[in-house]
Amino acid sequence: MAQPPILSWEGLGLQQGGRWLFGGPDTDGLDLHIGPRDRLALIGRNGAGKTTLFRLINDQIEADRGIRKVKPGTRIVVLEQEPDFSSYETLMDFALDGEHPPEEYEVESIAGQLGIDMSTPCKGASGGEKRRAAIARALAQDPDLLLMDEPTNHLDLAAIDWLESWLDRYKGAFVVISHDRTFLKRLTRSTIWLDRGGLRRKDVGFGGYDAWEEAVYAEEARATEKLDAKLKLEAHWLERGVTARRKRNQGRLEKLWQMRAQRAAMINPTGSAKLGLAVDEDNKSKSVIVADKVHKSFGDRKIIRDFSLRIQRGDRIGVVGSNGAGKTTLLKMLTGEMEPDEGSITIAKSLTGVMIDQQRALMTPDKSVREVLAEGGDWVDVRGTRKHVQGYLKEFLFDPGLIDTKVGTMSGGERSRLLLAREFARKSNLLVLDEPTNDLDLETLDLLQEVIADYEGTVLIVSHDRDFLDKTVTLTLGLDGSGFVDIVAGGYEDWEAKRTQRNSAGKQKKPKPQAQAPSPAPATHTPSKSPSTKLSYKDQRDYELLPERIEKLEAAILRGEKILSDPELYSKDPQKFTDISQGIENARSEKNAAEERWLELAEKVEG
Q1: Distance from the CA of 23 to the CA of which of 16, 210, 254, 328 falls in 20 to 30 A?
Q2: What are the structural domains, with CATH classification, of the chain?
């Protein structure tokens, strides 16, 4: 039997800036009900009002209409996206000043698990330290309802794993706003979607959101075609663009797999941080950055050791690892901002880079969108092509009417998207992205993946967004904090699988001590003279049968997606909708694993 909600809003309506953000005058308003064990993903485009809805739930602002009901004794705690630390001396001072002040030992317990020193002065704390302190404060208040606004921003992978484990055991309810698809898929069971002033809810986790969204837009498109109204079509340009974009991205993902396979063929079988190269001059001419036996230390600590890599034009390289592992140091050396202690890094003279950092320092609040993009004019030069600034805004999912809006009035996500529009317009052949997914909504992430895929130059990405890396990069550089840099063809999942495999092998058999062989230089890749590896019976069977299995899984995914495209399916048979959505997710996971397995076997066969 369903339990009564611990919080509800009925007939919610709110005006903002002279317009109705939620529940306009011709509607009944929004209805929202949160149960005691709900795990809710709150989805919506930047500017849709997700953070504002959090404030309404927490009674921080007043609505223009509607009734808010809260079960007596319910403790609501908000983990804000950008908490204000300015009035506090230390992180502990901040943590002990919550709405429901926790005991210091409770904060220290959580802080210890997150690896954060709460005596750190707020003034000098990094973004990651502040985020951990905010998490410690929120969780130590023992909430019945936890509202989380981009909780994984500035967290490294270890901290994200810890937070996921804590939330998995959590006995209360939570609502989360996040761009981290992997985080949402692992934790949420229901989805609420803010869309054009309305609120929809479906009792499926985020894993089923894409299919649900497609079904809604498909139904609206059919209704729009019946109306045959030009203005109505214009109102739906964004939704149609999203649907078309996702279909195009399927082709881009296939291309990404091909690029990863090509890169895999260049990596030494030992899996060491050395990248062999083809000997032909054409491949040499494609090289834009060459690192040869690079070492870097700070004091007695080895940050990078014996690292060699040749980066070629068109490479999309992801850099992952815990905070402090050396990601930024490696990035600075690869771009020439920092010199190695030993070894060499050669950068092509023709390389011209664009850096998009996580501070978004280029966005001046008093400038207008027109001034940022077109220096106050009507036209913008986009990598040598002249485009009208309002048309270019639409390409980045903006309403063209925002052309004269001041940057300071825009949301954090809108500012980030505007920065991307500005920087992608510049002529360059190297793009450096430092935590590019922070503050972006899911649709903007789809757009960013598309733009990166179409970019003709080389891309270096530092990110903790696992799903984004899996859909974007051809090569992953994984840092474990010891100075070793793991080079893996593929994305985050490929790196994680390799780490797991290596750790399992290490536990089963400890290697005998042996002399350290000299590291090979990254200059050439000599084809192996040894005969092709003979496969075991099981490996040979997998090599022969997996392509057929992959085709069957692809067909099953397409059949499932076709069934889910029926907009009336959920209302008729919600259990069938849930089962098919889960089946599609399982088939995709199996297909990815099968492709990785076949690629490994193909490398063995080809020697």
Answers
A1: 210
A2: 7-212 (3.40.50.300), 262-507 (3.40.50.300), 529-607 (1.10.287.380)
